[in-house]
Amino acid sequence: VDQTYIMVKPDGVQRGLVGEIITRFEKKGFKLTGLKLFKCSKDLAEEHYKDLKGKSFFPKLIDYITSGPVVCMAWEGVGVVASARKLIGSTDPLQAEPGTIRGDLAVQTGRNIVHGSDSPDNGKREIGLWFNEAELVHWTPAQAAWLRE
Ligand code: GTP
Ligand code: MG
């Protein structure tokens, strides 16, 4: 079963969108396995976005992600990585389709309110980066039989 790392970025927290964003994934039918409010260090932000090191916007990106609390989430489910990316929408919120989180709630790439892992391997890597094993909960939702045959 796939796992993805979803994070409400500092702008999403400051704008009071945490509940709205969690609700999108809950309603879809994925399983929450980790959740915390967290102020991340520069080192962690740089490790998380290491593939973007060298991009002109990298320093601004690190300032943005470390500028306030973020909400870290681990979600589990068949196909959750790709589906979460669809729910989130395009990187540039002006290009993101209405109905997606960024398409409905944001206007600029540098303030796009939420992160989602881009592959199952990165989902595992990022959950390992942001959570301790003891913070992850393995449980069976009561509605499981009503979500999948
Ligand atoms: P994440 O889910 O946050 O990883 O976004 P993404 O996968 O849609 O985009 P990508 O991984 O390519 O970039 C990571 C983040 O860097 C984006 O979500 C933006 O916050 C930021 N970013 C990407 N491109 C730009 C840019 O051209 N300008 C600025 N200011 N920020 C950018
Ligand atoms: Mg990305």
TrEMBL record:
<keyword id="KW-0808">Transferase</keyword>
<feature type="binding site">
    <location>
        <position position="85"/>
    </location>
    <ligand>
        <name>ATP</name>
    </ligand>
</feature>
<feature type="binding site">
    <location>
        <position position="102"/>
    </location>
    <ligand>
        <name>ATP</name>
    </ligand>
</feature>
<keyword id="KW-0418">Kinase</keyword>
<feature type="binding site">
    <location>
        <position position="57"/>
    </location>
    <ligand>
        <name>ATP</name>
    </ligand>
</feature>
<dbReference type="GO" id="GO:0006183">
    <property type="term" value="P:GTP biosynthetic process"/>
</dbReference>
<keyword id="KW-0067">ATP-binding</keyword>
<dbReference type="GO" id="GO:0042542">
    <property type="term" value="P:response to hydrogen peroxide"/>
</dbReference>
<dbReference type="GO" id="GO:0005524">
    <property type="term" value="F:ATP binding"/>
</dbReference>
<feature type="binding site">
    <location>
        <position position="9"/>
    </location>
    <ligand>
        <name>ATP</name>
    </ligand>
</feature>
<feature type="binding site">
    <location>
        <position position="112"/>
    </location>
    <ligand>
        <name>ATP</name>
    </ligand>
</feature>
<keyword id="KW-0547">Nucleotide-binding</keyword>
<protein>
    <recommendedName>
        <fullName>Nucleoside diphosphate kinase</fullName>
        <ecNumber>2.7.4.6</ecNumber>
    </recommendedName>
</protein>
<dbReference type="GO" id="GO:0006241">
    <property type="term" value="P:CTP biosynthetic process"/>
</dbReference>
<feature type="active site" description="Pros-phosphohistidine intermediate">
    <location>
        <position position="115"/>
    </location>
</feature>
<feature type="domain" description="Nucleoside diphosphate kinase-like">
    <location>
        <begin position="1"/>
        <end position="138"/>
    </location>
</feature>
<dbReference type="GO" id="GO:0004550">
    <property type="term" value="F:nucleoside diphosphate kinase activity"/>
</dbReference>
<dbReference type="GO" id="GO:0006228">
    <property type="term" value="P:UTP biosynthetic process"/>
</dbReference>
<feature type="binding site">
    <location>
        <position position="91"/>
    </location>
    <ligand>
        <name>ATP</name>
    </ligand>
</feature>
<comment type="similarity">
    <text>Belongs to the NDK family.</text>
</comment>
